[in-house]
Amino acid sequence: MLVTFSSKAGADILMLAQHAKPLLVIIGKTDDKDLLKRGVFMPEQLDASILRLEQAIAAEPRQNHEDEQDSDLPKDALTMPVGLRQRSFPLLDLLKRAQAQQVPVIWEAGSGW
What share of the chain has pLDDT > 70, as a percent? Predict the structure, then answer.
């Protein structure tokens, strides 16, 4: 299932539900059990939402791929893990843009097609 994040502040962001749900849990918009069908970040909630996401990113240990064995071998980008920093970047950017413009960010879970 796809989750679409929309705002007048920027382009829509599409994420698989399995990737969007942990971000929404970190921000406090949903619990670990069920992903809500729809939701909204109101302009007055954006400061706290951005702060929680940035704190979670800062708390995540950084992965240093240069220390791995066989560093001379080429790395396949598809086999490298995606960290919270990379996964959350598009949403965090949209939240910051919405904060600057004082507009809401809406999400909707669905097929996206």
Answer: 86
112 Ramachandran zone, left/alpha/beta (phi>0; psi -120 to 50): left
Judged against a pLDDT cut of 70, whether residue 70 lies above it is answered with no
For the cut 90, the answer to whether the pLDDT of residue 5 exceeds it is yes
Give the full edge-to-edge strand order of the sheet including 105-110.
10-16, 2-7, 105-110, 38-41
